[in-house]
Design a protein that fits this description.
53% helix, Fumarase C, Chain B, domain 1, two-stranded parallel ribbon, 3-stranded antiparallel β-sheet, Fumarase C, Chain A, domain 2, mainly alpha
């Protein structure tokens, strides 16, 4: 992307979609001209007024940190103190943060500096942005942050790469190499140094937690759309009753999310003849059904109550996005600097604390777990001949016994739901004091957000399983149901799935590949795109 088309960071209006574009698509970023001017002006005052030994004590500027807050740092030692902060705080461990999460963290941190409350030098921000735009991504161990004084350790590892420390590695052009080597390849100085307030600003704030959270929330919203598509396929496969989605019904209990979900279902099923009494009166071999005179009346809860379960997910996502967008456009380090009476004040505060993010991620884990559970219950209904209205056991198309069908695809979903149930217990209320009781309440935000990313990934596979099983059901009965077309959205979804994964109408095959192929359609938004092209945005207001 050219500089003219770069996302301009202002500190005020960074969006979740922009973060995803930066993190996943390599969108370029820059500072707005106004931000650049303000950062330079603030730093000029700091350099001229505060870098003297008789300056008042200012936490983490000319004092130590934590229990050492009363220890004055001399003006000549401030730069060394800042360098040492990055070394001493690089205490992460465990698995590596995904590159997309690190890129999101870098972009959010730069946007934090654009608020002009951090006092950081413009040269530091420019180097961070240069790394982002060149695709130089620090290698960062993910575990160990308590999300209270911010995500100190992950941000310290990011900062070590920015400085070109000998120990720091980065990912660049598909290879892991020393940070210095990557900088040399793009023509930047291989090493860099921090000065007063630079390191404090770089490492202070729950920005790793927030990066995980923003990506998890984006993927969860996309997941909800895919789960609505998988529901539509299952409704068509079971020739389900649609009256429960009537807007009159929704208006009788007018929760906003529930009503929007019902509207989305109606849009996806628009034009269907499959979910009718006439279709139900036809057996899958084309003969008249013995139950033709027995109307369905109503379906089991996993079908009939979908709006009542999906609606809270949608409402929660709206609430969570509000929190995350506010966090992304906030100053979160400590202390903060404010213009006042021709000069500046420096104020200690607690914006680094990650409780907002932690509680939002606890909520997201909870609602996504429940979403995955109701999808799995429909999967179980579909493969059980006692519940599926004449469909074959396990969706076996031919030679049951020799073939096993989709039983284990369904049970995979159950296993993932069980894992999610274990993971969705609250993290934000789990607090232990740290750093010799200096941090006597912590948020556990980084774990909460990392955990929730896993919950969302598990749920993607559960929804993929429903898509596979429902699509198989529709193909098995296709020869008998040609007189009963599918709704526009369901038809487009089925065609898109079949463009990647053919129906399994003969022997069993290697279903791992099928699951992963559908999961890519779910994760990357291709299935949503095909359905939107056929019947419009499912979340658009009803006419």
């Amino acid at each position: 992307m050219s500089e003219a088309r770069a996302i301009a960071l202002t500190g005020d209006d960074l969006s979740i979609d922009q973060i995803i574009d930066i993190a996943r698509n390599g969108a370029q970023v820059c500072l707005s001209d106004t931000v650049r001017t303000n950062l330079v002006s603030t730093r000029k005052f700091i350099d001229e007024s505060w870098l003297v030994d008789d300056a008042p004590l200012m936490y983490a500027f000319n004092t130590g940190v934590g229990a050492l807050k009363n220890q004055r740092i001399s003006a000549t030692d401030i730069a060394r103190f800042q360098r040492n902060l990055i070394h001493s705080h690089s205490a992460s461990t465990g698995e590596l943060m995904p590159d997309e999460v690190v890129r999101a963290m870098m972009a959010i941190r730069a946007n934090t500096f654009a608020r002009n409350h951090s006092g950081i030098r413009i040269e530091v921000v420019d180097r961070l942005i240069a790394m982002l735009n060149a695709g130089i991504t620090p290698v960062i161990a993910a575990k160990g942050s308590v999300g209270a004084s911010g995500d100190l350790a992950p941000l310290a590892l990011m900062s070590g790469a920015l400085l070109g420390l000998e120990q720091s590695n980065v990912s660049y052009r598909g290879a892991v190499m020393s940070a210095r080597s990557a900088f040399e390849q793009i023509g930047l100085e291989p090493t860099f140094d921090v000065e007063a307030k630079d390191a404090t600003a770089l490492i202070n704030g729950s920005t790793a937690s927030l990066a995980y959270a923003v990506i998890a929330a984006f993927d969860a919203r996309r997941l909800l759309s895919n789960a609505t598509i998988s529901l539509a396929l299952s409704l068509e496969a079971m020739r389900a009753e649609r009256s429960c989605f009537d807007d009159r019904v929704m208006a009788a209990r007018p929760h906003a999310g529930q009503r929007r979900v019902a509207s989305a279902i109606r849009r996806l099923l628009q034009g269907t003849s499959r979910c009718t009494n006439e279709a139900r009166a036809t057996s899958i071999d084309g003969a008249a059904s013995s139950t033709a005179a027995q109307p369905r009346i109503q379906d089991v809860y996993s079908f009939r109550c979908a709006p009542q379960v999906y609606g809270p997910v949608l409402d929660a996502l709206d609430y969570i996005d509000g929190i995350l967008v506010t966090e992304m456009n906030s100053a979160t380090d400590n202390p903060l600097i404010f213009a006042a009476d021709g000069g500046y004040d420096i104020v200690s505060c607690g914006h680094f604390h990650g409780q907002y993010v932690a509680q939002a991620m606890d909520l997201l884990a909870l609602v996504v777990t429940d979403l995955s559970a109701i999808c799995d219950r429909r999967n179980n209904q579909l493969i059980d001949p006692a519940c599926n209205y004449g469909l074959p056991r396990n969706m076996i198309a031919t030679e049951p016994g020799i073939n096993t069908g989709f039983a284990v695809v369904q049970s995979m979903g159950t296993g993932l739901v069980l894992e999610n149930m274990g993971l969705c217990s609250p993290a934000s209320v789990t607090s232990l004091p740290a750093k010799g009781n200096q941090e006597d309440h912590i948020s556990n935000a980084c774990f909460a957000a990392r955990r929730t990313r896993t919950v969302v990934e598990n749920a993607q596979a559960v929804v993929s399983a429903e898509i596979l099983i429902a699509a198989q059901a529709l193909d098995i009965v296709d020869h008998a149901m040609t007189a009963f077309p599918l709704g526009q959205g369901a038809k487009a979804a089925l065609e898109t799935v079949r463009s990647e994964v053919p129906a399994m109408l003969g022997d069993d095959r290697w279903v791992y590949d099928d699951v992963e192929s559908v999961r890519r359609l779910v994760r990357d938004g291709k299935l949503i795109g095909a359905v939107t092209a056929a019947c419009g945005d499912m979340w658009a207001p009803a006419p």
